[in-house]
Design goal:
Elements (H helix, E strand, L loop, with lengths): L1 H9 L3 H5 L3 H4 L16 H19 L7 H7 L4 E3 L11 H4 L14 H20 L9 H25 L3 E2 L14 E2 L1 H18 L11 H15 L2 H12 L21 H5 L13 E5 L15 H5 L29 H5 L6 E3 L1 H6 L14 E2 L10 H4 L31 E2 H4 L16 E5 H14 L3 H14 L13 H11 L6 H15 L19 H9 L28 H6 L26
Antiparallel strand pairs: 1-5, 2-3, 4-8, 6-7
Length: 610
């Protein structure tokens, strides 16, 4: 118990944020080793790292209706929290996103869990790194493969930390005694260390590994992001090209469980639960495995249909027929089985107009085609009572307005949306009577993103034609037309393509923040005509301007039916360091980000990871 308790304190936030129950402090030797005596071979070392893999999976599926990755997307131009019957979800950010606010509740946000999960993952990596020479290995290569894999895991979590929180404490090695004197380390210094670690990993981690494990391709993919973060664009091109020109290729031919269904296509196939790690999938670089009944799986599936599908069956603020009758029913086994077709949604993750409508620039794009993309008008009025009332709209497509222009639902945020990617979010659910989304493997890194990362590197490097070619490679696979005009091609174009291709795969808030740092670091003019600086980063940055440009909600006076207003400030580019984590570190100083209470107590951050 002592060992685990010390670690929970030393990781800064686990005890402080989550509290300290007896059950929480019990050692869990099946997932985290509590003594180095068990580190006897490479298998035992990988067993320690499996804890980090589990946490990566739980970023997307952790048994709640709003896993940590959901919070990531609330700080982007793609999505807002659509549960408008409550006033505490993260919409009024100026009021709620504060260091001592509620940061570990799915109904609010999961900022605290993102901090906690990262340091838990880093803990696993640190155990392996600090004890790398304790086990017996067959040769040096086996040892270095283990070390390189541990470096990947540490880099994975620190990449998220520095783009969510900025300067954070750097854990050099496994901590085996009480230590409450951590200090923040500069983001740039951490990124330089991650670069060094991943270059080692790329040299030693093998290319061919079992699905769900870390490969050389995964290391190069993450290294590309690190190079981009540091402004090393030639290196980013080299690392991404190593993946693109290696053992991977975009999927073009039908495959997997529905390959013989003529109503489906390659985009549908690519995102079926079991197809992501299928042997024939040459696009998958790194995925997490999530199967029903799998050992250690606390989640109840993706709950993707619950999170992202509109609240179409809401009886209080119902979608009405033009004749004034309640139009929809969530009951099972109806003549028109809408709930079985799309699931029971609450629209907690409501897409913005930018994502659901404005970015779709080609009607032939398979990602937005009928069958893959779902709109409200694809649904039909299914309430059986309509038949009893002889309502002529029974079985007819939904309408937002009647013939006089009156809106047919009280809540146009929660009950109605411009659409959603059915091909990604529809996941069979054997657990719940009203399906919300079941177990599914999930892409963490996929080759389509590697192309878009290289496109970004080319663009920063002044090679617009090559950047455009990489974006077109991704677009053409989806049957979308190519871009041909370099003068209208910019970073916004790439961000739009990332939104089309990588919804709920990419860590979009992190990518937007990374790009915001790059604009501030380089001083290059953005496509919006503005330039930025690091000295003024929390008051003026590309992340904030991008969200203000693309969304219809924040700082525009929009209020929900419950009365809360959508607000946001430039300093939200970085999340607040949880105050409890700062307070628990009683002998050191963890700096708070500018814009939040406590910033005035900061000291100079460390500029080295040594």
């Amino acid at each position: 118990m002592k060992y685990n308790k010390l670690y929970l304190i030393l990781m800064l936030s686990v005890l402080a944020i989550n509290g300290c129950s007896d059950d929480f402090l019990k050692p869990k030797p099946l997932s985290i080793l509590t003594t180095e005596a068990g580190l006897v071979n490479s298998t035992s070392m990988y067993a320690v790292l499996s804890s980090s893999t589990r946490l990566i999976r739980n970023q997307y599926m952790d048994g709640t209706f709003a896993p940590p990755m959901f919070t990531e997307y609330l700080f982007t131009e793609v999505m807002i929290d659509g549960t408008t019957d409550k006033t505490f979800p993260t919409r009024d950010m100026n009021r709620l996103v504060v260091p001592d606010g509620v940061l570990t509740d799915a109904s609010y946000n999961r900022i605290g869990h993102c901090w906690n999960h990262a340091y838990e993952g880093i803990k696993s990596a640190s155990i392996v790194i600090s004890n790398i020479d304790q086990p017996s290995y067959s040769n040096e290569r086996e040892r270095n493969e283990v070390l390189g894999t541990a470096y990947f895991h540490r880099a994975f979590w620190y990449y998220l930390l520095v783009n969510r929180f900025g300067d954070v404490p750097w854990i050099v090695e496994q901590v085996s005694e009480p230590k409450l004197d951590f200090y923040s380390t500069e983001r740039e210094a951490i990124l330089k260390q991650l670069k060094k670690d991943l270059e080692f990993a790329v040299e030693w981690v093998p290319e061919k590994v079992d699905r769900g494990k870390i490969s050389k391709g995964a290391c190069n993919h993450l290294l590309t992001k690190i190079y981009l973060s540091l402004g090393e664009f030639e290196n980013a091109i080299r690392a991404s090209s190593a993946v693109i020109n290696g053992n991977y290729s975009l999927m073009h031919n039908r495959f997997g469980e529905d390959k013989n269904d003529p109503t489906k296509n390659i985009i549908w196939d690519l995102h079926r639960p079991l197809n992501k790690v299928a042997p024939g999938n040459t696009e998958e670089i790194f995925s997490v495995i999530d199967r029903y009944g799998m050992s250690g799986n606390i989640a109840q599936g993706m709950t993707s249909m619950y999170i992202f599908v509109p609240n179409w069956g809401n009886q209080t603020n119902s979608i009405m027929t033009p004749t004034g009758n309640v139009g929809m029913s969530e009951k099972l086994n109806l003549e028109i089985p809408v709930i079985e077709q799309i699931g029971r949604g609450v629209n907690k993750g409501r897409g913005t107009s930018y994502y659901t409508r404005y970015i779709w620039d080609d009607t032939n794009d398979l990602r937005h085609a009928p069958g893959n993309w779902m709109t409200m008008e694809n649904l039909v009025y299914n309430n059986p009572k309509l038949k009893e009332l002889n309502d002529p709209y029974y079985g007819m497509p939904l309408r937002l307005y009647d013939d006089e222009g009156n809106i047919l639902t009280r809540d146009t945020i929660r009950n109605w949306t411009g659409g959603w990617p059915h091909y990604k979010l529809f996941i069979p659910d054997p657990i719940r009577v009203q399906p919300r989304g079941g177990n599914t493997d999930w892409y963490i890194f996929r080759l389509a993103e590697t192309y878009l990362l290289r496109a970004e590197a080319y663009l920063w490097n002044g090679q617009t034609d090559l950047a455009m070619a990489d974006v077109n490679t991704v677009r053409n696979r989806a049957n979308a037309k190519s871009y041909t005009n370099p003068s209208s091609f910019n970073l916004g174009t790439i961000l739009d393509e990332r939104a089309r291709e990588l919804f709920y795969e990419e860590t979009r808030k992190c990518e937007l923040t990374r790009i915001a740092y790059l604009y501030a670091k380089t001083g290059k003019q953005s496509y919006n005509g503005k330039t930025y600086s690091l000295e003024n980063f929390s008051k003026s940055n590309f992340w904030y301007d991008r969200i203000m440009e693309k969304t219809e909600f924040f700082n525009k006076g929009v209020k929900t039916v419950a009365g809360d207003e959508f607000t946001m400030s430039p300093f939200h580019v970085l999340w607040p360091i949880p105050q409890n984590a700062i307070d628990a570190n009683s002998l050191g100083v963890i700096n708070q980000n500018e814009g939040y209470t406590g910033f005035e107590n900061n000291v100079e951050a460390l500029n080295s990871t040594e």
